[in-house]
Amino acid sequence: MRAREAAKKDQLRRRHRLGEFPLRHHHRLTDAVKAWTKKYMDWIQAHVGFAQLALEATLAHDLHEVEHATEQILQLEQAIRRCGNIPAAIVFNEVRSSGRVTRI
After folding, report:
1. Phi and psi of 92, rounded to 5°?
2. Are 7 and 101 in contact (CB under 8 A)?
């Protein structure tokens, strides 16, 4: 559970980094797209681009890091479910509501 909690914090930091990067370079998201949905990720990949290779490499790296964090969380949740001694839905709901593990 602690690893999942740490992974969620990492994911949030990575999302913030990726979300701020296009804004610093005057790429604005339309109101029709909600942040961190598939549509949002597709928008970043399709509409945010840079002429400078360093900026493009930074964007690609940040995208990869967000995707990696999401995959890591899914793997940790699967591992928790395999443990079987704690109903994963109960634990995940407690973590979501409080932002931290309150009971195991």
Report:
1. -60, -40
2. no
